[in-house]
From TrEMBL:
Residues annotated as domain Core-binding (CB): 28-120
Protein name: Core-binding (CB) domain-containing protein
InterPro entries named among the record's database cross-references: CB, DNA_brk_join_enz, Integrase_recombinase_N
Presence of keyword Cell inner membrane: no
Gene3D superfamilies for the chain: 1.10.150.130
Keywords assigned: DNA-binding
Length: 120
């Protein structure tokens, strides 16, 4: 018994299909990209606190990005830029540049201690 193969006798073309596919150009602003991300996370049902953390971390990233890569677009945020940001954050001191946080020893006060010190 012979099975009818609809592809019998056809030529196989390998690697040519990708030439015909046009790649979409992403032209989102960074804020629009974050809004899209945030909406997806909200739809997934993430907790309010988690989404608040996303917003806070996004603000830190945008502050760094504006000084390091001014006028950056979504396509400018490469793996190299992300690694640079992670390195920056890993060397940044918590509460750096916040008034009444630094002790004479060079260490920083936590929030509760800062409030107590301000009320003295």
């Amino acid at each position: 018994m012979r099975i009818n193969d609809p592809l019998a006798g056809k030529t196989v073309v390998k690697g040519k299909r990708e030439e015909n596919v046009k790649k979409a150009v992403v032209s989102l602003t960074l804020d629009a990209a974050f809004d899209l991300f945030y909406s997806a996370k909200k739809a997934e049902g993430t907790r309010d606190r988690t989404r608040a953390d996303y917003v806070r971390h996004w603000r830190y990233f945008c502050d760094w990005l504006s000084t390091t890569y001014p006028h950056a677009k979504i396509n400018d945020v490469t793996a190299t830029a992300i690694r640079s940001y992670v390195n920056y954050m890993s060397t940044k001191t918590k509460y750096e540049n916040v008034l009444n946080r630094e002790l004479e020893s060079g260490k920083f006060l936590e929030g509760t201690h800062q409030t107590l010190r301000a009320n003295e």
